[in-house]
Amino acid sequence: MLNQPELTGYPSIDKPWRKYWREQPYREVIVERTVYENIFELNKSNMEMPALGYFGRTISFTELKEKADIMACAFRNSRITAGDVVLVGLPLCPEAIITFLALDKIGAISRWFDLRCGVSDISAYLQESNCRIAVTIDGVSKFFSEVIDDTCLKTVITLNPVESAGPIAKILYNARNPHTRISDVRFITFKQFLSSAEGNIYRGCVPYVKDRPTIMLQSSGTTGKPKVIVHTDYSINHMIRKVAFADYPIGLGIIAFNVIPPWVAYGLVNGTLDLLAMGTKIELFPTLEPNSVYRYIGKYNAALAVPIHFRYLQDHYSSLSERKRRQLRQVLFVSGGDKISIEEIEIWEKTFGAKILNGYGSSECLGGVCINPFNHNKYGTVGIPRKDIVIAAFDTDTGRELGFGERGELCIRTDSVFLEYLNNPTETSSIKVTHNDGLIWYHTGDLGFVDEEGYITLLGRTRRVITRAGFKISAYLIEQKITELDEIAEACVVEAKDEIEEHVPFAFIKLKKNVSTEDITGKVLTKCRKELKVHEIPKYVKVIEEIPYTPNRKYDISQLEEMAKEMAKEM
């Protein structure tokens, strides 16, 4: 019998979680490729099998490749080459995946943005990367018409969101959403853009380059001002490789339902690219409607969603037929976003018979860095690190790694970490830190600990973040916008419980001397609606005489959260 290595008591050395990975990967992933090459090389023996489903329509891997190749040719005809940035604002639809693959094939960068942003955001995104082409949906194209003359933008490719849907979905959507075309030759439809390839297919693929940017994602601003996260083929392929070692069902014959938008790493990478590389069919849903997972029971084996979807299903479980209940018992749910409680997971597994694997991650590390093992689900934790990821808690004062059970800031060591924050080396170096071991660790800003089995428990955040409908919101950003008003002396935004949305921003404001409170709430909300995304707008605004501080002169967040809890009930 082989001698077991003696444990040191430090997670980064002992790695007790390794026993839960697959011994062999589901598929061998070569990291030194483009993502485009990996997706289709790994599926070369099953190209006629379904890759994507969308409202009654199925797209095979062969069709997906053909469309990506044609679009790559169209981009090349538009003089988009390696290193160029294309602004992309699309819901989770087949064209979103086709656009990513086409740009990756030619070495260009897809810069994703949240469809809920405003005109000023779009203008800033275009200018920061000198984008000449943008791809978006019809309903957002009007925002581009307001800024196109003041930017480098030459072409806006517009898409009807049901372009690839089945006929019934198209009829219903178009009846409810009549569209008026923008009379500007710079605005062309997705079909028109593809037709510019004139039947040609770009057969080649750019050579793999380790540090060449592939995607840019907008951060949620959890460390202050939102930033642009830059990832590469290298980091995406490493995440794909990690998923290949996961112990939950993946691969051929599995259908996964994905409801997370592609401007979030969890939606684009974990929910789509990772699983496509394994041969999994992805049923795409373009919005975060809470009832989507409930409505589509029976059409998938696994679902990637956030707790609002699971809680909706739980609230409406009594409405399910017995057939749907039996189907529910065969489904694996993967939870991301805000925390799901031990009690909720117990209800799911014991009452409904369905399994929820709770996980944790960040867009800087391409989504889920840890997840509960399929057969060893430990309630109350966010699971174990994925293959070749190391997570440990560190003392924030000394930088010393803490032992099992000791509480500190969670730091992550992974090859899927982002390349940089665009044009922001200071912020990049502040959270990509070289430790005494000579290795780069990503500092999450989250507090927690690793237990002796390797499971991670979250305890809170060192940085102030509010999670609303699964999306992280920076309290700092909302405060910054509010305090730009001349009447405001201070603003502090905290999380409040809400019956409808679960967690929402609650803004406490202190006025400058001799300022009237008349209509100040209206002014605050007007500014927020103009300059913030919809989900960032505070649901509650309250004027108070003094914002409470702790003895060390920091906002007393705990006290404010208690105040918000009580006040929200009355407002």
Topology readout:
Elements: H1 11-14, H2 35-42, E1 50-54, E2 57-60, H3 61-77, E3 85-89, H4 94-105, E4 109-112, H5 119-129, E5 133-137, H6 138-147, E6 155-159, H7 167-176, E7 187-189, H8 190-195, E8 213-218, E9 228-232, H9 233-243, E10 255-258, H10 265-277, E11 281-284, H11 292-295, E12 302-305, H12 307-315, H13 322-328, E13 332-335, H14 342-352, E14 355-362, E15 367-371, E16 384-385, E17 390-394, E18 408-413, E19 420-421, H15 425-431, E20 432-434, E21 440-450, E22 456-461, E23 465-468, E24 471-474, H16 475-483, E25 488-498, E26 502-511, H17 520-531, E27 540-543, H18 557-570
Parallel strand pairs: 1-11, 3-4, 3-5, 4-8, 5-6, 6-7, 10-11, 10-12, 12-13, 13-14, 26-27
Antiparallel strand pairs: 1-2, 8-9, 9-19, 14-15, 15-16, 17-18, 18-21, 20-21, 21-22, 23-24, 25-26
Helix pairs in contact: 3-4, 9-10
Describe this protein with a few key phrases.
single chain; 571 residues; alpha/beta; Rossmann fold; Luciferase, domain 3; GMP Synthetase, Chain A, domain 3; nine-stranded mixed sheet; eight-stranded mixed sheet; 18 helices; 31% helix; globular
Quick overview of this protein structure:
The chain is α/β, with parallel strands linked by helices.
Fold and architecture overview:
With 571 residues, the protein is of the alpha/beta class. Among the domains are: 59-207, Rossmann fold, CATH 3.40.50.980; 388-461, Luciferase, domain 3 (Roll); 466-570, 2-Layer Sandwich (GMP Synthetase, Chain A, domain 3). Helix content is 31%, strand content 24%. It has 18 helices and 27 strands. A nine-stranded mixed beta sheet has the order 2-1-11-10-12-13-14-15-16, sandwiched between helices. The chain has an eight-stranded mixed beta sheet with strand order 7-6-5-3-4-8-9-19, sandwiched between helices. Strand 25 and strand 26 form a beta hairpin. Helix 9 packs across helix 10 (265-277). It is globular and about 65 Å long.
